[in-house]
Each structure stands twice: as structure tokens, then as C-alpha cells.
Amino acid sequence: MNLPFYIVDVFAENKYAGNQLAVFLGADSLSDQQLQTIAREINFAESTFITKLQPENKTAAIRIFTPDHEMQFAGHPIIGTSWVLMHKIFENKPEKISLSVPIGEIPVHQSGDLVWLQAAQPEFLNTFLTEDFLSFSNLSRADFEDKFPIQEVTTGSAFVIVPIKSKKALEHLILDKDKMKEWLHAHCKTSHRALYFYCLVEKKLSSRMFCIEANQLIEDAATGSASTCLQAFLLKYYSPEIQMINHQGDFINRASQIYFDGKLAENQFDIKIGGKTQYLAKGEWEV
């Protein structure tokens, strides 16, 4: 059995930047173990598997896997898979499609070079003390932006949002893997445990995402799901209207640009993230 697949870079202004993604078609007959094994073999941050395709309705169902586990929702896989469907699979390059993921239907549209997704309503979970982070990072109390809380937020996948005052502190951030893992397991409300550090200086937004997979400390180049959580956080605490670019991956040589367009009105969050996708390759995967 052979699966057609595509490789793209997502949230990337140019090739060989942003976050890598493999998109596999015709995966409906594969077992969970086969999907996980393929994702582990290709070893990108995430791979997507299209399990149902309805070209007449411009809809598809997908499953998202990291090398370690399945994700309920993830931004760059949805953006990248949508671009592949719009430009390589569906006829006439539709500008609007819908993807089904475990948390539900995600509306996606293209405007110019950008593909946008609409995120679900956020849930704001526990807040934390800066002292918690002193035990497993090189940050000092002065490095934290005390105008905003440290808080776990989810729009499908949860992230602890950590405001940092300066890009320098963000750049030189060091984390102790074992102590961080212990803290995440003790404090996070969901099974998806990750930290999203950001700084916002003169309306320039920079971020870094860290998680632990296969007992390794992982930094992601561009994290759409974390960006939807961060946008919700900024709408709640910073401004009820947001239009800016989130810069991630700068410190690991995978510069990424995640576009924010959000509003908060009457306690309803309108959260949209967008990005460019760069096409790299296609092939067949022998199962």
C-alpha cells in the first residue's frame, strides 16, 4: 500500500523556514499504531493524515500526530494541510474549506498569500507565580512582565502563557528539563503540557514554545495552537482588538511569522491566525 504525501513549510515567508509538515492522503485504513509509527519515522514536529476527503463539499477529516502522540488540535498542521488541499487536491483552488479534527470543525480560508483558521473559544485555567519558574529556568524575577498573569490557556490544546519583559531574556532562556517536566505534571490541568514564553515590546511580538516529548526538551519553530491561546490571552489582558505578527523560531534558525487577527466583544473571542505555506516536495510512502 502506498500513500501519496506532500511536504511543506508552514508559517514561512520563504522555503526552509517556519515549521515543517508532512501531509499524507488516503490514511483511512491505517491503524493508530501505523499512523504513529509513520509520524515517528518522518520526525517532524507534526504530520497530518487525511482520513476522509469530500472534494464536492470542500471538506476533509484529518488526524494530527507528533512523533510521540496524537494531537486534538494544532495550528500549523491545519494551515499547512489546508494549503495542500486548496492548491494540490481540490479543483479550482477554493478559498474556503473546512477541516474536521478531534475537537470539531475548523473553518479555513485563504486571503492573498495567507491561509487563516478560526479557533475555538478559549478556556482560561490556573494562574501561577513567577517563583514557580525560578526553580527550573535561568530567569530572575525582574525578567517577568508583571502587568500580566502567568496562565494556562486552551483552545483545544493547552499552553502555559508566560510573559517576559525583554527579547534578550527570551533569547537567552535556559530550562532544566527534569525540573520543568516535574512542574508541568504537577500543575497543568490537561494531558497536553507545554510552556509558551513571549515578549511584546513596542508592538513587536516574539515567542518560544517548549515541551517535553520522549523525555527530550523540544523547542517548536512555529506553534499555531499556542498562538491561538496567546492571542486569546492578549485579547483578554492587553487589547480587545489585535492585529500583529507573532515571531517564533528566530532562535533556532527557523524564522516563523504567525499572523494575528482577533477581537473580543461581549465575552466572545474572535480568534484567527494566518500564515504563508511554502511547497517543498511530494512523493509516495510505502506502508
TrEMBL record:
GO CC term, one of those recorded: cytoplasm
Active site: 46
GO MF term list: isomerase activity
Top-rank taxon: Bacteria
InterPro entries: Phenazine_PhzF-like
Family (UniProt): Belongs to the PhzF family.
Protein name per its UniProtKB record: PhzF family phenazine biosynthesis protein
